[in-house]
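Hi F.,

I've been meaning to write this up properly since the lab meeting, where we talked about keeping a consistent format for the predictions we share between groups. The idea is simple: the sequence comes first, exactly as it goes in, then the structure tokens exactly as they come out, then a line or two of notes. No screenshots and no reformatting. I'm using this chain as the first example so we have something concrete to point to.
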Amino acid sequence: MRIVIDYRPALRARTGVGEYIHQAIKALARSGEDEITLFSSSWKDRPAADLRSELPNVRVIDQRIPVRALNLAWHRLGWPPVEAVAGGSYDIAHSPHPLLLPSRSAAQLVTIHDVYFLSHPERTSEEIRRDYPVLAATHARRADRIIVSSRFAAGEVQRAFDIEAAKIAICPAGAPEWSSRPSGGDPHGYILFMGTLDARKNVGGLLRAYGELLSRDAAAPRLVIAGGASSDAAPWLEQIARPPLAGHVEYLGYVATDRRESLFRGARVFVLPSFEEGFGLPALEAMSAGVPVVASARGSLPEVVGDAGLLIDPENTAALAGALERIIADDTLRKNLSYRGTQQAAKFSWSRTATDIRQAYQDALLTRRDRQARPAHANRH
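Output, unedited:
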């Protein structure tokens, strides 16, 4: 198959969406079965210098087109076709977000990790607020296949857009390929949170819970927060700088991929108390390093974590503080969760993700060809 994929979500800091598409492409390319083209466009941001060496079997097209201008044309006008800006012809055009990649003749797929932009548009970026709530349903119905990363996300997409289940392909993310075996974390390490600092991640609730923990034990492990700061983050960063949290909480900002492994291995416990996750890749990364996990019992996290972590109500501050305290105080529990976490993480692999995505491509191609083969009058009914 000749495949073109919009690589722009992975162009700068690779958060969940960017990391998912980058690792999926890497795994897809290993087989060498397909011709894969990555399309990137930005006025100022360029693909990483080592991208071509990391993905030697992949063609990279980098255009100096402003992101906002191209998105406006693609999302609102469905023009220009990707063939015109990337060159070549394709069987598959894959968008890693909910809006289609325009194409003259390729089967079209979108990826929808969650529909949080519908329930809380005020907590999203300006461009997402402008386009996703009004366009996502139409694009989802036009797509030949929709890729999601969890059963939870599949259900949300099906309900939100009235999409038949057969059109949705569940392609879970994979565990990272760390350079060394799981260490079980550091028994004297820190509490780690990793994720973009936005309202959905419940950073405020985490800080309240950690404050409760400190009030009971002034010698509690420090809290390390890693992730880019959204517009929501200002009050949390101010709170971190004031007593009682000052000196106990460290904010690292965005942590690049090559630093993530050492950061996880230095943690005593990982916490992800999000109100909603479409997958929750950092929880899987923590488990693959053998770090015990405390996570929200909402969204996709229960299916990703399974019984390998402590699941809590994200709105229950006392429950969150208590779960952290249990793991910190109980070495037997910590070791048990560490073992169960590595067993759970072993169920997820990027090679399996690539297999699932490739099947979605094949199904989308059959759907497109079947539609094109129908008589013109049949398509009007």
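Notes:
Residues 2-174+350-380 form a domain with the Rossmann fold fold (CATH 3.40.50.2000).
DSSP finds 15 helices and 13 strands in the chain.

If this format works for you, I'll send the rest the same way.

G.
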